[in-house]
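Researcher: Going back to the complex we discussed earlier. I've cleaned up the inputs and rechecked each line, so this should be the final set. Can you rerun the prediction on the complete assembly and write out the structure?
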Amino acid sequence: MRIAFVGQPNAGKSTIFNGLAGYKTITANFPGQTVHYTVSKVKVGDEIFEIVDLPGIYSLTAIDLAELESRKYILSGQADVVINVIDASALSRSLELTLQLAELQVPMVICLNMIDEARRKGIEINIEKLSQIFGVPVIETIANKGIGLDNIFNSAKQAYYKKLIPKIQFFHKDIEEKIEEIEKIIPEDFLKNIPRRYIAVKLLEGDKEIFEEIKDIPEISEKVTKLREEIKITHGRHADTVISSERHALSMNIFEDVAKVVEPLKSFRERVDDLLTNKYLGYPLLFLILFGIFYIVFEVGKFIEEPITEGFDSLIQKLPQFIEENSLLYFIVKGLLEGFSGGLGVAIPYLIPFFIGLTVLEDIGYLPRMAFLMDTIMHRIGLHGKSILPFVVSYGCNVPGVMATRILESPRDRFITATLSVLIPCAARTTVIFGLVGAYIGGLAAAGLYLFNLFVIMGLGAVLTKFIPEITPGLIMEIPPLRIPAVKNVFMKTWLRLKDFILVAWPLLVISSVVLSFIEYLKLDLILNKLFYPVITQILGLPEQTGITLLFGILRKELSMIMLFQAMDTTQLNTVMTNLQLIVYTIFTIFYMPCVGTMGALVKELGFKKMILISGLTILLALILALTSRITLSLII
Amino acid sequence: MKTLLDINNGKRVKILKISGGKGVRQHLQCLGIHIGDIVTLKKSSFLGGPVLLEVNGFDVALGRGVASKIEVEEIE
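Model: Rerun complete. Updated structure for the full complex:
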């Protein structure tokens, strides 16, 4: 049995999904994060359920790509049962999506999630009555505490075997007549799996995609255009507005039937929320929160890192005592040790605290508030507040950052935001900044690099928006209530993010380290370095040996740093490179080319050509920035 | 005619008209903002920042461009 989870953003679908599937997906507390749907198989008793987590959608009217994707899936008829996850504290609005889902005529279960939140807001819901109205099972859950999740499969089975298809709620008579008129002329075999009523309603609403499908049947398109005109004349509003108002009225009626609203508990959280989005205090708090996270990451990281790298270093130095120096075995063991210590000693101490910090911010619901605060500043670079979300996510990793650009409506905003997102120092580049500049020159210089990076991004943003001007619709975004993160959730998400590093990046790192060691053994590195010589040494003024390390940086950014230790044959880089060289190297590394993973994400979101364009742009930018900083800093230092 | 930008913090208003293209209109509708709805202006950010509305128990942030397209009337 295949079960699809559908619901509005922030209704808690992914939390439920994770609770059932055992933490295989990453969820985030702002709209549009689940951009790809995730499938998982769960065995309950003897039965195997395939559960599908779809991106959150506000309605079946496709506004952004995530909505289009969810809608396509539901319409494809692949789901046997739909679990409609509703944020019980926003019941009246959520019912509008439920009304639309009902039109799809697929067996359904209504899952009222965050029922505790609703009670806090003073909303009491009569679930029997709601179940009667739609004719489907209604269950209550509190997903982040794992309460009620065990009812989901039973209700899904009930809905499936008893064919509990939701009852359609009808609009006013005059609209219903128009829907019927269209229904009558839709040919028998048109879009087979999709109920005719749904098609008729969407046509009346002027849905682009479905209009595209009927444009070869002039009889229908003319009829629809005529009916839309009629509605506009009789109601004085566009047909889509009229239908939306009808749905709104219907859901308000249902809400009044099933829910009682009593005095809400004025909470402590509201006062905190007030402070966080305060027009004066909000900004210093934003700064403190971000600064705090970076400070803790740096301090904690350094504390753990030093003993680890020192231990491995002394081991590597003692290596000639056990294995004959300059033998093939010596090079391989050395490569293994260096790769291993690089992952353990440099990345993990920084990655764990950083991921915990980012996850906590996400789960509290701070990110949308940040978007609210930053809208003004983002307007200066021609974007709007929502673009801050891909940016913040990019500090963790550029890949989900690029994917998060889907929450933006206009292709132009998506392109600019993606271009700027790939310049944000992700965890890997943060490792490089901390590991090279932070460790050898100092925390202040590392912080300075972050600031420099921000200025570059803002400057480039301003330039890009000059070249691609367009009036964007502006910020329209829900701000979910603040929530206390569940500790289990934070650790599971941190683990999931880390797992990717441990299972993919780290082994890759060890292997590349050995490969480089082998190349060194064969003296091939000299040839490769000669090839890069003009750029590396003549333009950037870096030691010749660094050429090859930058090649590895395309795989994963932190590789270029670990390879640097390899190539320079020491972890005491300050003995072989000047501070200026370290800074220029770091600047070049953090700006040139996104890593392979990010390039993949760019191809998926924007297409191959734009990926090439963006990659080329970053190389050019990295060269210009590294060269200018080389010249300017050499005057100062 | 007053728009959301002309309203003081904490005031309740009724939405009279939403101008602007179909995209904006539909987006607002999906978020549960309709003509005739009564909303509370919780906050207006300064320096051309967005406004924060409370609509039927949840918060929505609207950029100033969008807010200027929503005509409202104050209610007591």
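Model: Worth noting: DSSP finds 27 helices and nine strands in chain A.
Researcher: Good, that matches what I expected from the previous run.
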